[in-house]
Amino acid sequence: MNNILELRGLRKEFGGLVAVDDIDLNIEEGEIRGLIGPNGSGKTTLFGLISGFLHPSKGEIIWKGKNITGKPVHSIVKQGVVRTFQLTTLLNDMTVLQNVVIGCHLHNEKGFLMQLFGTAGKHEKDKLVEEKALGLLKTMGIESVKNELAGALPHGYQRLLNIVISLACEPKLLLLDEPSTGMNPVETQDLMDRIKMLRDEMGVTPIVVEHDMKAVMGTCEKITVLDFGKKIAEGSPEEISKNEKVIEAYLGR
Ligand SMILES: Nc1ncnc2c1ncn2[C@@H]1O[C@H](COP(=O)(O)OP(=O)(O)OP(=O)(O)O)[C@@H](O)[C@H]1O
Ligand SMILES: [Mg+2]
Questions:
Q1: Which end of the chain is more exposed for a tag (fewer CB within 10 A), N or C?
Q2: What is the pLDDT of residue 111?
């Protein structure tokens, strides 16, 4: 077993509310993990903790054997741990391509792209960044809308664009928070296929928060279930779909 991420007794309190309650979690490199649970069970908070947007009240986050607890977001992103947001955050008045280009620049100011391009002139660099951005749009299947204004896109496309922008950070671990929101079943299946492709072809290890059970069960190799901030179950899709605690957590509300 090769764990790239280990959470040890991770806890987050907001005032008196325990949003994430002493979670232990191991993620193996290259697996597709599903993270599910009823509304308010702590999924987004857990993503916030792993990605450094929130600081834990207790516990440790070990990334590739290194303790990254409390490190700033930019340093965590640089190490390849990247989240997407449950709500779409785009530059609405810019085109799809411009959104990705800006994403590439923001994340790669001193990063791999600039090293890669070495002493190339500004014009050359811009061209290379644009090529990179186009490649990423292609990966998620939305290169055909590259010249549309981001704000005018259907919601499903905006979700895909969000993922493309996060890919500009070259993630090794990608935390996807309800990526299929606003998509129909066909689009959702296409998204899931692309998430698999990110794993198979780009070496990304995805963790997916998803309310669409069919999508989760069909895509994830292992599923972790939260309820009231606690991990109540973990296992294969088959095990999870038969788990009594899980059924109760969902039916009980
Ligand atoms: N910044 C915050 N301040 C106070 N309470 C918060 C904060 N963020 C989340 N919470 C609370 O923590 C709990 C877990 O919220 P979280 O958003 O992590 O749940 P979730 O599983 O992502 O839910 P959903 O499926 O609705 O997205 C909820 O009770 C929520 O109200
Ligand atoms: Mg959430």
A1: N
A2: 52
Residue 117 CA, ligand 1 centroid: distance in Å:
42
Please count the other Cβ atoms lying within 10 Å of the Cβ belonging to residue 89.
11
Q: Does ligand 1 have an atom closer than 6 angstroms to the CB of 43?
A: yes
Q: What is the C-alpha separation between 161 and 44, in angstroms, rounded?
A: 20
φ, ψ (nearest 5 deg) of residue 59: 100, 175
202 CB contacts (<8 Å, ≥6 apart)?
Answer: 139, 167
Q: pLDDT tens for residues 30-63?
A: 999 999 999 999 999 999 999 999 999 999 999 9
**Cα of 127 from ligand 2 centre, angstroms:** 37
Q: How far is CA 101 from CA 128, 132, 179, 217, in A?
A: 10, 8, 21, 34
1-80+173-253: CATH superfamily = P-loop containing nucleotide triphosphate hydrolases (3.40.50.300)
Q: In whole angstroms, what is the distance from residue 97 CA to residue 148 CA? A: 8
Rg (CA), the chain: 18
What residue's CA is closest to ligand 1, atom 8?
A: 45
Boundaries of every domain in the chain: 1-80+173-253, 87-170
How high is the pLDDT of residue 114?
Answer: 55
- Contact status, residue 165 vs residue 98, Cβ threshold 8 Å: no
